[in-house]
Design a protein that fits this description.
There is one protein chain. The chain has 202 residues and is α/β, with parallel strands linked by helices. It has 6 helices and 9 strands. The strands form 2 sheets. The protein has a 7-stranded mixed β-sheet, with helices on both faces. Strands 2-3 form a two-stranded antiparallel ribbon. α1 packs across α4 and α3 packs antiparallel against α5.
Length: 202
């Protein structure tokens, strides 16, 4: 690397945006409208505003439509053909896409949590130390998203990520190593899962 090049952040943003919105009548969550644009676009903007210079986005349901309608320039778009198996498959696909990228950690966020903005993400990002780091946002002491996984943990997380559990089993097993970063004062960790939740969108 020449001295004129800006080094990439060691932490890559990893946005899981593959869900089909089963409880929303089959409307893919990535394409739900929020503030006039697709939700996936908003979520990428949050990661970038928080300081993630590179962002990988895992797509699944209606991936072609998401590519056409959302402005995701500069993102690495990762297809998860097994998205119907749940979030675990998307997490595995996303972590696999980071292999060989030079990233030393992944900051994982979910497309359907628009109440979590750049402030909370930046707090979690700021807790990164090295490849062994495990960090999770907490809301009144309860672990939530986003989460940050140092690269030393990726293989273990991929091996245990199944169904909709994602990294839950791995984090529970390594609870003593997880640093909690309180974010309840700057974010609301609700999900957009049902018709009733659509009221959170603007």
């Amino acid at each position: 690397m020449t001295t004129s090049e800006t080094p990439e952040s060691p932490v890559a943003g990893l946005l899981l945006a593959a869900g089909g919105g089963r409880r929303l009548g089959g409307r893919p969550k990535a394409l739900l409208e929020h503030r006039g644009r697709p939700l996936v676009e908003h979520a990428v903007g949050v990661l970038r505003a928080a300081g993630c210079t590179r962002v990988h986005v895992v797509l699944g349901a209606a991936a072609d439509a998401v590519r056409q309608r959302a402005r995701l320039k500069g993102c690495v778009l990762v297809d998860n053909p097994r998205w119907e198996e749940g979030m675990g498959s998307s997490l595995r696909a996303g972590l696999a896409s980071l292999a060989g990228s030079g990233a030393r950690a992944a900051l994982v966020s979910l497309v359907d949590q628009p109440g979590i903005g750049p402030e909370a993400v930046a707090r979690v990002l700021g807790a990164y130390e090295d490849e062994r780091t495990l960090v999770s946002a907490a809301y009144d002491g309860v672990r939530g998203h986003p989460v940050l996984f140092g690269a030393a943990h990726w293989a273990g997380i991929a091996a245990t990520a199944s169904g909709d559990r994602g990294a839950r089993a791995y984090l529970k097993e390594h609870a003593d190593a997880v640093r909690l970063v309180e974010c309840a004062d700057v974010a609301q960790p609700y999900d957009i899962d049902t018709e009733a939740d659509l009221g959170h969108l603007e």
